[in-house]
Amino acid sequence: MAANIIFHLDMNSFYASVEQAHDPSLKGKPIAVAGNVKERRGIIVTSSYEARAKGIYTTMNVAEAKRLCPELLLLPPDFPKYRAASAAIFSILRSYTEIVEPVSIDEGYMDVTELSKTRHPLQIAEEIQQRILHELDLPCSIGIAPNKFLAKTASNMKKPMGITVLRIRELKELLWPLPVVSMHGVGEKTAKKLNSIQIFTIGDLANANERTLYSELGKNGVRLIKRANGIDNRVVDPNSIFDTKSVGNSTTLPRDESEYYILKETFEKLSKSVAERLKVKYLAGTTVTIQIRNYDWQNSSRSKTVRNAVHQADEIFEIAWKLFTDYWDETPVRLLGVTVSNVVDQSELTQQLNLFNFEQHIKDEPIVQLVDLIETKFGKGAIKRGVRVKSKSYASKTSFSKDFLDDHMK
Hints:
This protein has helices at 14-22, 49-52, 62-68, 79-94, 121-136, 148-155, 171-174, 188-196, 202-206, 210-217, 219-228, 260-281, 313-327, 358-378; strands at 6-11, 31-34, 44-47, 73-75, 100-104, 107-111, 140-145, 163-165, 246-257, 283-294, 299-310, 333-345. The protein is an alpha+beta fold. The protein has 14 helices and twelve strands. The protein folds into three domains: 1-166, Reverse transcriptase/Diguanylate cyclase domain (Alpha-Beta Plaits); 171-228, DNA polymerase, domain 1; 244-351 and 390-408, DNA polymerase, Y-family, little finger domain (Dna Ligase, domain 1), CATH 3.30.1490.100. The protein is globular. Keywords: Cytoplasm, DNA damage, DNA repair, DNA replication, DNA-binding, DNA-directed DNA polymerase, Magnesium, Metal-binding, Mutator protein, Nucleotidyltransferase, Transferase.
């Protein structure tokens, strides 16, 4: 059976490239998009390749970046502009095949297996790359491989404007000698864990004992062994855009913060923001997670899963704030985040009766009896509790949001 042919398209320095496309005078100059260009809380979101050559990198704070590169041009993010560019990119991809899966605002997968029966995959990739460059003035890299993991890996091998083919038979030569932290899906914490059990390269991981990895990392350990061997059975799924798994928001504080009332106020604002986005998407979730990054850039998180799904700001805040106060040791904090996950459509919610909500159900009982009476007389479904009205679009203010996926649901 012939192998699948999967593309992974990754835009190069996307936000900065969009800014340069809109303002050609910025081309060839070191530029960076930052969350807040005037305050210390300003963090570099992305930078042009000219800036990267000067040592500028994502997550560097603005003050440090300006010290390193005084001529750096700083721009505030313009998410509507980036979303419009993203929509145009994916429109080009869908002119080749409908089997396109966006995974972020600037990257996605394509399954071109059928298309490759009549055209060479390299020819298709080159044409796509040139169309995006000429029509949108945006550079991209494309990885070509038999599965998603290898395609993603390939797209990272040559930037900017690269096209890379990666075959399973090439893994031993091209990937296995690399440090395990360079593998897609392995972060610094996982890499340290792997190093502690004498797994230093991707080759070490590929040849590791599954039982040992399972005991250390659970199912993810076994998954990583398979990926290191080039095994990935995930399909390119265009419908994944409808599968929202979580809704969250985070913020970098203006300074290393340890003031109780400021941290509490920040959690209130984050909880309100998450609740607004849940409302727009008509979702609720059973797990609340907080993210904390301290003054030394050490990240930690805490989660709580509740029986009844939450979507109101006060409910989310109550859980998030308790998670924080139970855990916080008064170490100064730089970043905070709140996420609600394990989400479901609010119409699917079933609430557990308890001492606190029983009274509300009792109040609803006369209404329920009235509905039963009307349906007995006029037929089942003659009256409904209500019709959901689509909320106005919520303008996302964070680059970590996946609200761009709404553009693909129209």
